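help with this:

***
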Amino acid sequence: MSLEFNRRSFLKYSAAAAVAVAGSSLLVGCGEDEYQKTGKIGSTLKLMGTFKLYDGTGSAPAAPVYTAPSTGAPATYGSAVFNLSIKCTTKKVPLCVNDGCFELTVTHNDKKTNYAGSSHIKVNPTILDLSESDGAQDFIITVNGTAGNKLTIEAGDKVEFKYWPRIQASSGNSGYTRAFCTWKMAAKTGTNNKIVLE
């Protein structure tokens, strides 16, 4: 009989503990995902490495620059240039820095347009195996619009620049595809009516 009592007590208290844990998560909310880091221009994010999107202060490389499409001869389809410092901080698995690791998302009136892949992204230089011993390296990532998908950013738009440090090292493991860094910025009208990312 005492065994039955203990079993019932255990189940009762286990259920109460489960309800308490579930209830506390509703009150506290979820924190930042440890595999998805978020910042703004000038922020240094850490995820399998250290990554800084330059803001152009001091002697640092330029802040993100947007150039609108033009209809002149030759026509251009819009571009955005980002200067990023990347440093690998893990010993065993290097980082990848190529056109498949980046994406730019522009949200205009709740409509999202993504720019990714070799038709939109150019990385200089491209390094497939940036190791810890290489130290911090600077990269220029240029996002270009195309005739079929112009890169258009207007004042009030929300812009997200993303980097996946090991997207191609997954070997079928989806864990690396959900690990990425995002720099969020807003588009505003600057001098000479040019769009500025802040």
Summary: The first strand starts at residue 36 and ends at 39. Residues 2-28 form the longest helix (27 residues). The chain has two domains: 1-31, 32-197.
